[in-house]
Amino acid sequence: MPLIALLYALAMITTSIGSVCGNVMLLLVVAFNTKLQTETWALTLNFCICDLILGLSAIPFGIHNSLSGVEGYDTKSILCQSNAFVYVLLQLASVHSLTWATIDKFTEICFALQYAQLFTKKRTWVILSFLWMYCLLNACFPFMGFGSYRYSENKFICMPRFQPSSKSYSIIIIVIGVIIPIMIMCSLYIYIVYIARNQALRGTFVCNDQHCYYVPANNYIRSSIVMISTAVCLLVCWMPYITVSFFETFTEYSIPPVADAVATWLVLLTSALNPWVNSMTQK
């Protein structure tokens, strides 16, 4: 077995374990803590389930193929096509669910007085309904002749084929499906940091039924560090994959196998990181 394949398998095994354990833990915490079951907790539940299934489906598929040294996998087989479909469906659903969870958090902080009217349980389920319809449509595109799925020998999984002949498909999946949601999240995190900085400069008194107390600047600085770290984490995990995808789409050159594998692994790693990202941003 090549060393690269072995290292890739070990990284994927770690990712799968982290994804399953992290998301199960977060689901249990939310399930047994009624205070966390807000009107919009379905958004958190949604991306947790997506990442959990990803850690139990697409990632183990890659682990098996990398350990078995599978190279000439039948791209048109039902197993490969269905695995690629699940991969695209869950990744898009996870990214967009995390985006809406970030929008929810941003609204709660910046529009506290209007928050209860803006984000209701009914609107949350409407958002999730449209989100899943959008993700299903994108995942079904290759079955309708728009784009295609293939087995990647470098990544050991079945996934979308990004090539010059399908630029429109690549742009829809990468730009609309991934780049725009990530840019929205990073922009909102930056704005929240800006607000936290202003609050830290002037200080804030928070009151309850009995008394008022001063919130020290360190609290806002700590929140800012968490938000910045979250934005950096998103960019680090997704930018290599986005770069590789655009390189494959707009050039005829092949990507080095190691770079291709690492870029895909970083994207799959988000399924293990998302529970911790969500936990930190909720503090």
Automatic annotation (TrEMBL):
One GO location term (cellular component): membrane
Transmembrane segments: 6-31, 43-64, 84-103, 124-149, 169-192, 225-247, 253-277
Keyword vocabulary terms for this entry: G-protein coupled receptor, Membrane, Receptor, Signal, Transducer, Transmembrane, Transmembrane helix
Main location: membrane
Domain of life, per lineage: Eukaryota
Membrane topology: Multi-pass membrane protein
Gene Ontology terms, MF aspect: G protein-coupled receptor activity
Leader peptide range in chain numbering: 1-18
InterPro entries membership: GPCR_opsins, GPCR_Rhodpsn, GPCR_Rhodpsn_7TM
Cellular localization per UniProt: Membrane
Residues of the G-protein coupled receptors family 1 profile domain: 22-278
Pfam families on file: 7tm_1 (PF00001)
Record has tRNA processing as a keyword: no
The protein's name: G-protein coupled receptors family 1 profile domain-containing protein
Organism, as annotated: Lepisosteus oculatus
